[in-house]
Amino acid sequence: MTEWFATPPGRYLLAWEQDRFDLAVADVFGFHALQLGVPELDALRANRMPQRWLALPEGDAPAIDGARVALVTDAAALPFPEASLDLVVLPHTLELSADPHQVLREVERVLVPEGRVVLTGFNPASLWGLRQARARALQRLGRGTRPYLPEAGEFIGPGRLRDWLRLLSFEIEAQHCGCYRPAVRTDKWLHRLRWMDRAGARWWPIFGAVHVTTAVKRVRGMRLLGPAWKPRRVPATAPVPLANRQRR
Q1: Considering the entire predicted model, what is its pTM?
Q2: How far apart are CA 165 and CA 160, in angstroms?
Q3: d(Cα 5, Cα 13) in Å, to the nearest integer?
Q4: Does residue 238 lie in a domain region?
Q5: Terminal CA-to-CA distance of the chain, rounded, Å?
Q6: Which UniProt key words apply to this protein (predicted)?
Q7: Which of the pair, 164 or 247, is modelled with greater confidence?
Q8: Cα separation of 28 and 35, whole Å?
Q9: Which domain covers residue 53, as residue numbers?
Q10: H helices then E strands: how many in the chain?
Q11: For the domain that residue 202 is a member of, what is the CATH number?
């Protein structure tokens, strides 16, 4: 993925995703936020939480990157207690994981009730996804061809991702696609075809090359308490009936 992100389509994708993450996390409040993978993208830069971590897979050296503290961990076994994080972002994390279901279960475990998760991934139902599927089919037939997208991982479509999140009691807050330019490899053609981003968002919005999803963790039976009611004051001197009143 690192090498691909340095290519013209990779830079185009990162720029679009950076804008989407900035909008999605800017108004999410709390104390602890976590980004899982893809250090080329600062998905938490617009967020104002005091503690922000970048979790990298084993083999990547931890480092300090601005306000993010990098740590080495497995996304399927996060070193955080239950209900301890307010926000988790996953840029392409599920499709690069050997067990995406377990990664989502871990995210649900570490999120506080009403915590948010923001995910991005490649859309198999797009021009980029169709070109990737064709390249893989030719490879299986023994015809050497270079895939357009990274070979690692399995793409998860937006509909499939919605089903997974709902099974874990997440409520989908927003979901949309982007990057509608065709699967070309040069900056020249990407620039010439930039008009397709506007056309695609209007005429074929579900067929963008990448999708972004925001979901909220809901806990059944949980009720947020408002300010405590003040107890009703009892009069200090209540009237007392006179039982032995003398008759005149």
Answers
A1: 0.83
A2: 9
A3: 8
A4: no
A5: 105
A6: Methyltransferase, Transferase
A7: 164
A8: 14
A9: 2-217
A10: 7, 8
A11: 3.40.50.150
